[in-house]
From TrEMBL:
It holds the Pfam family Ras. InterPro entries: P-loop_NTPase, Rab33A/B, Small_GTP-bd, Small_GTPase. It comes from Cavia porcellus. The keyword Aminoacyl-tRNA synthetase does not apply. Keywords: GTP-binding, Hydrolase, Lipoprotein, Membrane, Methylation, Nucleotide-binding, Prenylation. This is small monomeric GTPase.
Length: 229
């Protein structure tokens, strides 16, 4: 499944109409697709965050992710319809092994997640950053840091100023949020939409030739490092 998905991602376009020229069918509306991987320790809430953004609600129940789950949502930014594809990865090492190389192919952005009520999940972040480095993730792709479960105020173990220092040291913006309670702190919707805006402006793709039934893409010359300030 991952490899099928990746081959479609290599094109980074999708079409809402797959029968060119069929009567009554409008010309295909192509959307750019952005692959965002969501990584962090098990139980920090990666599934709930991706579900909140794509389904608009907190899931009734979750189980440990095995391998990877995909969720997708189409959004419109400045008149362009783009697809945000979230790869919800397994936090447990035993459920990651077989899939890990797939996560890191053709990635457009990374979301690092920790649980504000679990200091260990915060202290694991350097290991997740190192994993990205080992998989040769380009240093200029957008990365953000998300502290989840802010609704559990009395149980917070990771103070905001500590998390902010870490984020600053790694040139990432920090968001504190709750997948469960959308009114707490930064809104999950706003976090992913902010990322979508950055991707739209910083990762342009252009058609190399007008396609009939095939699309070839090449990235434009890369702009300078994105500024997250
Ligand atoms: N209170 C609270 N609980 C949350 C929140 N987000 C997730 N949870 C709970 O945390 C637990 C783990 O959530 P998941 O989304 O499955 O965690 P995960 O990071 O995907 O875990 P793995 O799949 O094992 O990597 C579940 O019991 C969720 O209900 C949140 O914002 N607030």
């Amino acid at each position: 499944m991952a490899s099928e998905l990746e081959s479609s991602l290599e094109a980074s376009f999708s079409s809402s109409c797959v029968v060119p020229g069929a009567s009554g069918c409008l010309p295909p509306a192509r959307s750019r697709i952005f692959k965002i991987i969501v990584i962090g320790d098990s139980n920090v809430g990666k599934t709930c965050l991706t579900y909140r953004f794509c389904a608009g609600r907190f899931p009734d129940r979750t189980e440990a992710t095995i391998g990877v789950d995909f969720r997708e949502r189409a959004v419109e930014i400045d008149g362009e319809r783009i697809k945000i594809q979230l790869w919800d990865t397994a936090g447990q090492e035993r459920f990651r092994k077989s899939m890990v190389q797939h996560y890191y192919r053709n990635v457009h952005a990374v979301v690092f997640v920790y649980d504000v009520t679990n200091a260990a999940s915060f202290h694991s972040l350097p290991a997740w950053i190192e994993e990205c480095r080992q998989h040769l993730l380009a240093s200029d792709i957008p990365r953000i840091l998300v502290g989840n479960k802010c609704d559990l105020r009395s149980a917070v173990q990771v103070p905001t100023d500590l998390a902010q220092k870490f984020a600053d040291a790694h040139s990432m913006p920090l968001f504190e949020t709750s997948a469960k309670s959308p009114h707490d702190s930064d809104h999950v919707e706003a976090i992913f939409m902010t990322l979508a805006h950055k991707l739209k402006s910083h990762k342009p793709l252009v058609l190399s030739q007008p396609p009939e039934d095939a699309v070839a893409l090449r990235p434009e010359a890369r702009p300078a490092l994105p500024c997250w300030c």
